[in-house]
Amino acid sequence: MADQDEFNLPNLEKKAGEDDEGAGGARTAGDLEAVFDVPVSVSAVLGKAGMQVSDLLALSRGTVIELDRKVGEAIDIYVNNRLVARGEVVVVEDRLGITMTEIIKTDRG
């Protein structure tokens, strides 16, 4: 699993006048303790399809909708509607899950 530095997270316990390397240098998960209880929404998108409303209304049980992805292609993983990673679908006991294979870095300036 990626550490918080890959997500460009700030040091939340910085004291006045301290730079990023102050207070011992390395950041830890404890630096994020203030946000541990903040809920986030995680979505895994297998693919997308576009259609007209008339086609949507004509769908019935058993209809197959072709998506824009190929079998084995990475899925997109969103946190709060922001693309953060790509991954693969896995089966864990009798449930579906995802495993992250790539973290998406974005420059937020």
Describe this structure in words.
With 109 residues, the protein is mainly beta. It has a domain at 40-109: Surface presentation of antigens (SPOA), CATH 2.30.330. It is 5% helix and 27% strand. It has 1 helix and 4 strands, in the order βαβββ. The protein has one helix spanning 53-57; strands at 42-45, 75-79, 82-92, 95-103. It has a 4-stranded antiparallel sheet, with no helix packed on it. Strand 3 (82-92) and strand 4 form a beta hairpin. It starts with 41 loop residues before the first strand and ends in a 6-residue tail after the last strand. Mean pLDDT is 82; it is low at 1-22.
Oligomer class:
single chain
For the largest beta-sheet, the strand count, sense and barrel status come to: 4 strands, antiparallel
Radius of gyration: 20 Å
- Per DSSP E runs of 2 or more residues, the count of β-strands stands at 4
User: How much helix, percentage-wise, in residues?
Assistant: under 10%
* CATH domain class of the domain at 40-109: Mainly Beta
Taken from the alpha-carbon principal axes, the silhouette is: elongated
Order of helices and strands: EHEEE
Q: Which spans have pLDDT < 50 for at least 5 consecutive residues?
A: 1-22
What is the name of the CATH architecture of the domain at 40-109? Roll
Give the strand content.
25-35%
Strand order, main sheet: write it out. 1-2-3-4
CATH topology of the domain at 40-109, which one?
Surface presentation of antigens (SPOA)
- Overall structural class, as computed from helix and strand content, comes to mainly beta
CATH H-tier superfamily of the domain at 40-109: SpoA-like
Total helical segments: 1
N-to-C CA distance: 25 Å
Mean pLDDT: 82
